[in-house]
Amino acid sequence: MSSKKVDWKEWIRTIIITVAVFLLLRIFIVMPIVVEGPSMEPTLQNSDRLIVEKVSKHFTDIQRFDVIVFHATSTRDYIKRVIGLPGETIAYRNDKLYVNDEFVEEPFLAEAKQHLAEEESYTTDFTLAEDVPGNYETIPEGYVFVLGDNRPDSTDSRRLGLIPIEQVVGQALFTYWPINSWQWIE
User: Fold this and answer.
1) Could you tell me if 164 and 62 are in contact, meaning their C-beta atoms sit under 8 angstroms apart?
2) How much is the pLDDT for 79?
3) Which one is catalytic: 3, 5, 39, 56?
């Protein structure tokens, strides 16, 4: 009879340790998220499930074109692509990104742009100073400028303004569901 008690104690201890490890991973290291809406198409689709890692933001700076998750409101997280970093000016002219008045290629938009007529723009013209809430000349320290990959249908920094880095939850790593669209996010 005592061996059965030991077996139950071992099972309970194993379950408690497993739950504790899972919670630590979920709270501090990675989290699952579901994409809601079309704002990151074609990179991410509505209802894609992905893993966001939360650690690297404490050790490395956010880079241009990272796909991040941030607290947009007290109840909603958004997923967008970092376009502008602290100290930079951002502008779009003739469907081209300019950072500090220098053209920057956006290869992840090639697929979406190939379906446009020649005279159509995928991203409407704007400048950081004139068209983005806050009317900043440059992005201040502690903030980033984000856009959705689906520029015609995205609520991003053009409407929300600059995103405080302290509101960044983490960087999207890969989609895991649906299984046939598993991919590393670049």
Assistant:
1) no
2) 95
3) 39
Q: Is 39 a catalytic residue?
A: yes
pLDDT digits (tens, 9 = 90+) for 127-161: 999 999 998 999 999 999 999 999 999 999 999 99
Q: Which long-range contacts (CB under 8 A, 24 or more apart) does 19-22 make?
A: none
What range defines the domain where residue 124 resides?
2-184
Residue 76: left (phi > 0), alpha (psi -120 to 50), or beta? beta
Catalytic residue among 4, 5, 56, 80: 80
Inform me whether the pLDDT recorded for 2 exceeds 60. no
Token pair belonging to 93: 């002219």
Q: How many domains does the chain have?
A: 1
Give pLDDT, residue 115. Answer: 77
d(CA 177, CA 23) in angstroms, rounded, equals 21
What's 157's domain CATH number? Answer: 2.10.109.10
